Amino acid sequence: MAESKHLPQGPGLNGLFQAAAPQKDYLLRICGNPQNHPCDLLLRSDTLKLVDILACGLWDSGGSPRVELPLDEFLRLAGYAATESSKNAVRRQLRESIDCLEALSMDWTEGNGRYSYRDIKLFDDIIYQNGRVSAYFGEDMAKYLLKCSSMPLPLPLLAIDGRSPHSYALGRRCLVHNAANKGREWQPIRVRSLLAVCPHTNRPAPQEKWPPSILERKVIAPFTAAMNTLVKCGILNWKFREPVCRNDYEGFSDSIVEFQVPDVNAPALPVETEAEPEYAPFDYDAFLALR
């Protein structure tokens, strides 16, 4: 079974992954952004991977809100080659992501409105210097995450190729759904819920209807390819529940996907050792008779 990290997860963190879609019970704020619209950097998989890796570090920290993440470790976990060109590109990406994350706060509600959180900062401080990210989670956010349940975050998912822009968010969304709905071998989920975490997926304008060929090329084919990437990486198996509407966007969004996540707690199969050869006992009397 693939190695994994422990990710604390709850609506306060998971809402970041739907930053491009309207959310009734979740509001993101970027300090200095008068429209309070999340910056485009929150839609990049490398930014979201950084948040998850730091949240895993918080879970492992024993309660300290401070998390240190060396550049080489981020490269390894996020699936980048450890070359100088990669390091230079990732340094630039990290600094851009950090500028956005440092200015981020959020409001949200849970439990059908019973629990409300207001103006919760994700990080009190986060910088990149001396070859590492140094992050201090906001006090309220750290307390919140450490009280949440955790789920396994497979390392192959973190390392998934960034050239598949939807796969990380789709895989994470499926794992969150699976963690909240234990007990089924195949988990059903609306395609709409999965598309909500795919900010780069094209959508028709209101009242616009695409012909099936355009819908296939712009939505269904990229969605299917991203889900198949998760299969190749061993994250999950999946299938459409028939029938699947392929004639219009809303109909496709209302379709259902069923997925199956390997049991990360299953014990590894025992290693079969080579059997010792068996020899017949030596018959000394027979040996003497042959002389």
- Order of strands, main sheet, comes to 2-4-5
Number of domains: 2
Judging by the overall fold, what is the CATH architecture of the largest domain?
Orthogonal Bundle
As for the CATH topology of the largest domain, it is: Arc Repressor Mutant, subunit A
Number of helices: 11
Radius of gyration: 24 Å
Spatial separation of the terminal alpha carbons: 60 Å
Please summarize the sheet with the most strands: 3 strands, antiparallel
Query: Runs with pLDDT <50, length 5+?
Result: 266-291
What's this model, at a glance?
This protein is α+β, with helices and mostly antiparallel strands and 291 residues long. It has 11 helices and 11 strands.
3D structure, described in words:
The chain has a three-stranded antiparallel β-sheet with strand order 2-4-5. It has a three-stranded antiparallel β-sheet with strand order 3-7-6. Strands 9-11-10 form a three-stranded antiparallel β-sheet. It contains eleven helices and eleven strands. The chain folds into two domains: about 1-155, Winged helix-like DNA-binding domain superfamily/Winged helix DNA-binding domain (Arc Repressor Mutant, subunit A); about 160-290. Helix content is about 40%, strand content about 20%. The N and C termini lie far apart (about 60 Å).
